[in-house]
Amino acid sequence: MKRILCLFSAVMLMSAMSWSQVKINFETYKLKNGLTVILHEDHSAPVAAVNVMYHVGSKNELPKRTGFAHLFEHMMFQGSAHVAYGDHFKLLQEIGANINGTTNEDRTTYYEVVPSNNLELGLYLESDRMGFLLPAMTQDKLDNQRDVVKNERRQRVDNVPYGTADERIAKALYPPTHPYSWPVIGYMEDLTAASLEDVKGFFQTYYAPNNACLAIAGDFQPAEAKELVEKYFGGIPSGLAFDRPKPQEVTLPETKVLVAEDKVQLPRLYKTWHSPSSNTREDAVLSVFGDILGSGKNSRLYKTLVYDRQIAQSANAGQGGSEIGGTFQITVTAKPGKTLTELQTVVDSLVNDALTNGVTETEVEKSLVNTETGIVNSLQTVLGKAISLASFYDFTGDADGINKQMDLYKGITPQEVQTVAKKYLQKPCVVLSMVPQGKTELAVQNSH
Amino acid sequence: MKTLCGILMLGILLATAAASAGDIDRTKRPVAKPAPTVHLPDIQKATLKNGLQVWLVEHHELPTVALNLVIQAGSDHDPVSEPGIASMTADVIDEGTTTRSSLQIAEELERIGASMGINSSFDGSSMTLNLMTKHLAKGLEIFADVLTNPTFAQKEFDRLKKQRMTALMQQKDQPTTIANNAYAYILYGGDHPYGNNPSGTQASLDKMTRDELVTFYKTYYHPNNATLVVVGDVTMSEILGTLESALSTWQPGTIPPFTLQAPKPVEKTQVFLVDKPGAPQSEVRVGYPALARNTPDYFPVVVMNRLLGGQFSSRINLNLREKHGYTYGANSGFRFNKGAGPFTAQGGIVTEKTDSAMREMKNEIDLMREKGMDETELKFVKNGLIGNFALTFETPGQIAGALQNIILYGLPEDYYKNYLKNIDAVSLSEVNGVAKKYLNSSKMAMVVVGDLSKIQAGIEQMHFGDVILCDTDGKPLPFIKNSDK
Question: What residues of chain B, 330 to 349, have a C-beta less than 8 Å from chain A?
Answer without folding.
Answer: 348-349
